[in-house]
């Protein structure tokens, strides 16, 4: 009996001790919860640069950019909201460049430095993968103006196009053929041929990226400004068709001259770029990722680091 009594006292003592332990654990959990809550609140009020970096990280992991692009296309400009930090409305860039070219103060001039890296004439199996590796390492996104003929060359080039989208970059249309003589015979803009070539490029891209893919971004081989100067009437007719189809053409206002004059070494490309970007608040930067442009890839890390140091943020165009 006494033994039993002392046994029950001992168990009562034990259960009291257990209750105390439970209380302690509950208090501990509450404290940890409070600390976590405070930490989240503080990280919400991070600097814009940190938020930007975070957005870029989540961008490359959390969703399929080709779907975002398709959504934005079907719902119009307002749909571009989630990626607002690093996606620019192509119509904005188009208008900005047009106003700048006319010597006007562009509507979007607001003191914020933005760099739009763009690569034309690819993909190539030699240079494009190098450029993608560098962009990954530097955690910045770019816009690739794809030539359909190059994209459809073989399984490797098609996979590179998929990789571009998967890694969060944007794709623009640079026509299927990129053939000046065909698109601009006798230095005149052939509206029907240009539009057919743009649609053919789209078909190639859809066959690689899926039927949901679409892009509003166009860059003319040789540049819109060149052909507007040579054939103002032809270009005006083409502009009308583009407008109807909600296409937006963008040229550039900065270049590294990797497709002009004699081939240059990386250091010369960086120098050309630094001269060209001077004073540009919104910098639409033209580079090339086609065959033979290895020096462009070599120059790219320095170009990106220069832009970062100068306080530019990076955006893609859609
Ligand atoms: Zn080109």
Automatic annotation (TrEMBL):
Region (Disordered): 51-81
Source organism, top-level taxon: Bacteria
InterPro entries: Glyco_hydro/deAcase_b/a-brl (IPR011330), NODB_dom (IPR002509), Polysacc_deacetylase_ArnD (IPR050248)
Domain NodB homology: 113-315
Keywords: Membrane, Transmembrane, Transmembrane helix
Keyword field contains Lyase: no
The keyword Membrane is assigned to this record: yes
Pfam family, one: Polysacc_deac_1
Coiled coil: none
Transmembrane segments: 21-40
PANTHER family, per the entry: GLYCOSYL TRANSFERASE-RELATED
Protein name: Peptidoglycan/xylan/chitin deacetylase (PgdA/CDA1 family)
Species whose genome carries this gene: Paenibacillus brasilensis
Lineage: Bacteria, Bacillati, Bacillota, Bacilli, Bacillales
């Amino acid at each position: 009996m006494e033994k039993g009594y002392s046994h029950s006292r001992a168990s009562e003592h034990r259960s009291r001790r257990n209750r105390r332990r439970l209380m302690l654990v509950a208090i501990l959990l509450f404290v940890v919860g409070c600390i976590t809550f405070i930490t989240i609140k503080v990280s919400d009020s991070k600097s814009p640069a940190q938020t930007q970096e975070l957005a870029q990280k989540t961008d490359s992991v959390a969703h399929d950019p080709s779907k975002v692009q398709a959504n934005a296309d079907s719902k119009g400009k307002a749909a571009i909201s989630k990626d607002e930090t690093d996606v620019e409305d192509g119509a904005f860039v188009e208008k900005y460049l047009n106003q700048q070219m006319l010597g006007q103060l562009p509507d979007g001039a607001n003191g914020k430095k933005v760099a739009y890296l763009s690569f034309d004439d690819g993909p190539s199996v030699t240079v494009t993968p190098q450029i993608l590796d560098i962009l990954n390492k530097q955690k910045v996104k770019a816009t690739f103006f794809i030539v359909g003929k190059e994209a459809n060359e073989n399984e490797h080039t098609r996979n590179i196009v998929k990789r571009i989208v998967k890694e969060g970059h944007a794709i623009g249309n640079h026509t299927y053929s990129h053939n000046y003589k065909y698109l601009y015979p006798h230095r005149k803009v052939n509206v029907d041929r240009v539009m057919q070539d743009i649609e053919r490029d789209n078909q190639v891209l859809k066959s690689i990226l899926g039927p949901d893919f679409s892009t509003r971004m166009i860059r003319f081989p040789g540049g819109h400004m060149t052909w507007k100067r040579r054939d103002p009437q032809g270009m005006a007719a083409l502009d009308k068709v583009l407008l109807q189809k909600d296409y937006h053409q963008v040229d550039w206002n900065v270049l590294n001259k990797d497709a002009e004059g004699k081939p240059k070494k990386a250091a010369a490309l960086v120098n050309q770029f630094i001269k060209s970007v001077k004073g540009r608040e919104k910098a639409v930067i033209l580079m090339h990722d086609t065959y033979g442009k290895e020096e462009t890839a070599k120059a790219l890390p320095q170009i990106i680091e220069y832009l970062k140091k100068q306080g530019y943020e990076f955006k893609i165009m859609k």
